[in-house]
Amino acid sequence: MKFLHPEILTVDPGYAEAGRQAARQLIEQIAGNANPRQIVIPAALI
C-alpha cells in the first residue's frame, strides 16, 4: 500500500562502503603492502 504520491526517494551516499574501503586501505598501508589510492564509491538511489 502506498501512502505518498509521488513516492519518497532517498539517496545512499555509500558511507558504509567508504568506511570499509578506508579501513582496508589503512591496514594495507600500515602493513606496507599498498600505496595510497583514490577509491570512488558511487551513490545509490533507494
From TrEMBL:
Which InterPro entries does this chain map to?
A: Peripla_BP_I
Write down the superkingdom of origin. Answer: Bacteria
By its UniProt entry, which Gene3D superfamilies does this protein fall under? 3.40.50.2300
What protein name is recorded for this chain? Trehalose operon repressor
- Origin organism is Raoultella terrigena
